[in-house]
Amino acid sequence: MLPHQLELLSPARDADIGIEAVNHGADAVYIGGPGFGARAQAANPLPDIERLVRHAHRYHARVFVTLNTILRDDELEAARRLAWQCHEIGVDALIIQDMGLLELDLPPIELHASTQCDIRTPEKARFLQDVGFSQIVLARELTLEQIAAIDAALGPRAAPQRAVLEFFIHGALCVAYSGQCYVSHAYTGRSANRGDCSQACRLPWEVRDAQGRILARDKHVLSMKDNNQSANLRALIDAGVRSFKIEGRYKDMGYVKNVTAHYRRLLDAILEERPELAPSSSGRCTYTFTPDPQQNFNREFTDYFVRGRQLDIGAFDSPKNPGRPIGWVVRVAADHVEIETDDPATELANGDGLCYFDARQQLVGLQANRVERLGPGTDGGVRWRVEPKDTIATLRDLKRGTRVNRNRSMAWERLLQKKSAERRIGLHLRLHADGDDLVLALTDADGHRAEARLPGPFELARDAERHARQLTESLTRLGETIFAAASVELALPAPWFVPASRLNELRRAAVQALLQVREAARPRGQRRPPVQPPVSYPDDVLTYLGNVYNHKARDFYARHGVRVIEAAYESHEALGEVSLMITKHCVRYSLHLCPKQAKGVVGVQGTIRAEPLIIEHGDQRLTLRFDCKRCEMHVVGRLQSHVRREAQRQLREQPLRFYRARPAITGTRAIPPSAARCETSASTG
């Protein structure tokens, strides 16, 4: 990617969704391979990825494969082979977290540093650039000023080894710094760093203070609203971001089509304003719908910390989609409910998802099994009869006057189930003579040129003007190709008659030749060589937060000056109470209990202290500790004994190899750390 280019990066759960992402304007797509991706349920076979690669490359769009879990020693060889297989099918880059991969014999493919690498500081970003990463996915929690500082630390944007800054602009938000959450593993054995998060952050919690007083009951205090940076794209560009990433490798086709088209339009408008910038792929998109992110699942939107700390970033009432307000209940009957819409243009349909908040502010779903239009309402809207899928008796607190939202529109979903976009590259066609031969020269919007020749001689047309119109019309019939005629020039010495079949043959040959020229000219990234001698890591001590799970990762950090290297949390060496989550989100701040909020308030200043809080859900009990200097919150707990016992049982049945910083125990014999790399163990600590 060139420094003046902007990249819209879309997610793909599978190849078909990835292809539609490209069709709807993505400059690049990221997708999970057969294994080792941070979304365990979004794996794809290599032949499917190859099909996506072929389609994307026609537009000079790129495909990235996620290989971004932390790896055990016994997984490294399989990961190495997968990296080579991705390279062989034309994948443009690998997104990785585990630094052990950099110690392997990898193919000459671009490496991108995953957001799981927890990239928040200029020093960390510069280090990753210097060890050979071409693109760096920044932490979602950064402000514009922090992004600009990282951009400055990487050096001149036009420098040959300069890394591209990538930033999430839309989708679900992890409350923790990515790569710094172990709650799932501590309580279930499912590791977020290995693509299997149990999403404890979306649960309802009871919050208590140090005196045991309840501050919040059944509130989703760790659940964030969804990210939406639509209003901040220009500021992000100015701060140095060049790749704009949409979250959502678990999302469906409609989501990817809609959100990709939304941001494609916004970025295209910026490109029109700023001719010094350019897209990183080819073609212009047209749509059969008007993109609208509100139509997809969302927990309402926030721009998170980009403009500084905001109070209203949490989806504390519900982690579900509350939808858009459409009206209110005017009557509740035994088998149906009558609703009046606010806007007479609002149309309901069978299968629509409706919802409302009950007396406890819990979201209650009301799926419309059958709807019937009754006529005009009393306040200018339209009255509808709605027969719900569930019985009326099960819809708690539903009564006259209840506000109703719609969080699923069947009409919208049906619209996006059809073909909804075309992406075409502008083409200039020139038909001219070369002696007795006919030559069709094609020049695309990127300046690539090819031609095809049809041997003559040709007879003269009886009706020159009519035949010229037919030639022009035939040349513009580009059908299912990636091209659209921007202009046609006929430069013949006489009104030659060309049979339609032969002209079609000429056009097809010229298009095929142009596709070959485009493929030969397609930019191909290479793995960047690391700076020599090896640069030093920003710190000389790595705790379990460094996620070192294999000996190659240990060797990497040691080679870069780290003296003390603890094992990853998944190695089960951190058995006491530790930070299971580190987050910029602050529960105290959200509950108006932050000492900084009280500063200067008469009668309040000095009475509020950042004492720990307790959160509970069922048998889960965690402590919230507050680092006010860094303005961060730590969720503190310990590895549950049943998780450790289950890991020990699995190790007895299937011995595994992973990095330990402390001596491992097998039976009664201690194994020194230097020998542990080649031993299998029946113990986790």
From TrEMBL:
<dbReference type="InterPro" id="IPR020988">
    <property type="entry name" value="Pept_U32_collagenase"/>
</dbReference>
<dbReference type="InterPro" id="IPR001539">
    <property type="entry name" value="Peptidase_U32"/>
</dbReference>
<dbReference type="GO" id="GO:0008233">
    <property type="term" value="F:peptidase activity"/>
</dbReference>
<keyword id="KW-0645">Protease</keyword>
<dbReference type="Pfam" id="PF12392">
    <property type="entry name" value="DUF3656"/>
</dbReference>
<dbReference type="GO" id="GO:0006508">
    <property type="term" value="P:proteolysis"/>
</dbReference>
<dbReference type="Pfam" id="PF01136">
    <property type="entry name" value="Peptidase_U32"/>
</dbReference>
<dbReference type="InterPro" id="IPR051454">
    <property type="entry name" value="RNA/ubiquinone_mod_enzymes"/>
</dbReference>
<protein>
    <submittedName>
        <fullName>Putative protease YdcP</fullName>
        <ecNumber>3.4.-.-</ecNumber>
    </submittedName>
</protein>
<feature type="domain" description="Peptidase U32 collagenase">
    <location>
        <begin position="404"/>
        <end position="518"/>
    </location>
</feature>
<keyword id="KW-0378">Hydrolase</keyword>
